[in-house]
# Entry
Amino acid sequence: MLAGYAYTEKMHWRHLGDIRANKPSATEWLDQLPKQKWVQCFDEGKCWGHMTTNLSESVNSMLKNTRHLPVSSLVEETYFKTAQLFANRGRQTQAMINSGSQYSEVIFDAINSGQQESNTHIVNDFDRHNHTFIITETQSPLETPRPPGRFRVMLQSQKCDCGEFQAKHLPCSHVMAACKSVNVDPMTYVPMIFTLQHILHIYDNSFGLLPHESMWQEYEGDQWGPDPRRKRTAKGRPVSTRIPTEMDEDENERASRKKCELCRQHGHSRNNCPNVSSS
# Structure
């Protein structure tokens, strides 16, 4: 996993070497895959930090209770769930905009985390016209298992030697430190695609209404049905579960920081949210 999530080629080859030492057959299989398909530092920022494991987890959580159903029921449930998701997310995004928010909580959390980490960096300004810097870390990063390092930051070309800035398109802690030293707002380096207004445009798309089966036109094609030989013979309801991962939050922790489901603000619930427009 570390080899795929690496922000730089050096870190990728280092983690791939660890895999090769422990299981050469796994490395031989990985060598057959195009690097830009599974390694962050080779995708030229096209994945925006989204990895296959994260997307599959999202799909898995959506279809948790329906993946064992017949194909027709699975398609219908997927369609209805997606339509409901777009309506709910659009309503929630609009409420956050009405409350005065410009970015989602995910962006603010990433920015706040980078700002806290940037307080431990030493900044050396090399060119005040082109905004180039050398950032020296004094502590090991919390998320990356490596010793403190030294990185070049080029604000005009939006590049940092750590690779995180190019992969996620969000300012890393080194960029935060450089911006702080020259009194530049780091939010100027956050693309417009992360704004709530841009996200709202995505959820403005609507899904067509499906009439009842009695109102459908007569179908004259082939008739398909389930194979009776593949019918379940075990008694009782099949158990549909998923393996818990680090993405699962503790219920108590989730309840302790409960917010409004629409505008994501404290102090009220979605039933009495003051930021929901009447239209």
